[in-house]
Design goal:
The structure holds two protein chains of two kinds. By secondary structure, chain A is mainly alpha-helical. Chain A contains eight helices and no strands. The longest helix of chain A has 20 residues. Chain A is globular, with a radius of gyration of 17 Å. Chain B has two domains: 90 residues, no CATH class; 72 residues, no CATH class. Helix content of chain B is 76%, strand content 0%. The longest helix of chain B has 32 residues. Classes of the chains: A mainly alpha, B mainly alpha. The interface between A and B is large, with 41 and 38 residues. The structure holds zinc ion. Zinc ion (ZN) binds next to helix 3 of chain B. The site of zinc ion has 6 residues of chain B, from helix 3.
Amino acid sequence: MKREEEKTVKELFSSYSDDILNYSMSLLKDYDDAKDALQEVFIKYINTKDSFRGECSYKTWLLTITRNYCFKKLNGKANKPIPLDENFLRTYEPKYEDKISLNDAMSRLSHEEYELIYLREYACHSYQEMAEILGISIDNVKVKLFRVRQQLRKYLK
Amino acid sequence: MKHYDYELNLFIDGELEEGNGEELFLHLAECNECRNTLADLLLLKEKSKMYCSENINQLKQKPSSSKSFYKFGFYAASVAAVFLLFFLFSRNPKDTFTTQKQVRVDTVFVQKGIPVTQNQLTNTNSLTPGKKELIQSSQQEYLRYVMNLRTEKFTEADKLKFDYGSIQ
Ligand SMILES: [Zn+2]
């Protein structure tokens, strides 16, 4: 991939602070924590920018940092894949499925499940970008997204 | 009959590889179930997007959920309480009980759970000098911390701090 034009931290901040803030909020579920994350991400970026080789875009690089920070903050589970089916809606019995709204089901998703939906539907990332941010293969993105949607579909009523 | 749930997921994301579309469309033309799946997936996509968007707006609008605000409020209250105690107890205890009015002030505090005994008066007095300074110094630390958290109010100076020139 061709290296993007070099950008100053200031330019990156004005271009991507909203993306970082929203992604952090989707994981941390707190505006103030997300604002902390935004600051931490740029500090981390400044400290590590020499290792940025331009294999991905600045945006996905920053979002990868964001993800690592947020998961570390959540419980240090970054990059530890969690099987989707085991964790899905663990507190509900299947027979109550039809009484749960889609929004309830969405709010019951694990962080790993929700971020797939967020990155695809809200942030409109391609599978390629999602793979870079999540640190998994494109095929893995396809399968994971497919599974979350299969689960959510049951609550479409 | 083989159904195409998986491929439909790719299709609605515009990620179906070229060449795989024809088979899918031929199947869709004759399979009611897959047409329903497609409709579901499109609806789900729309609703998921709405959910994410509402979720973000709600989080942003939470009355400055500001933990830091509450932390600060709590802190300010504790400091005020300590100063109040200091003020009350550092006065000569003899004066405290000279008029009806002042006795009543003390009664209020008794009801709030601070029994005024001679022992406590001396204890509080002996505590105040060191504690007071500790609290004053940590208050400055804390304020600095709070100021650092206010990312939404990036000042020009803050921006310059971030602007390290061109990236290597
Ligand atoms: Zn079919």
